[in-house]
Amino acid sequence: MVARNLIIATFAIALASGCGIKVNGGLDPTLHFHSSLEQLKKPGVRAQLAPAKRLSARIIIEPVAGYYPQPLGLVYSGGGVSRKLRRQYTLGGTPERRLTRTLRQVFQPGSGEAVLLTSALVALELYNLGGHLYSSAAFEARVVRKGHEVYTARYYARAKTVGRRGGLSAVWPALETQIVAQLQNDPKLYAALEGRR
Question: Label partner for 82 (CA 20 to 30 A): which of 34, 115, 119, 121?
Answer without folding.
Answer: 34
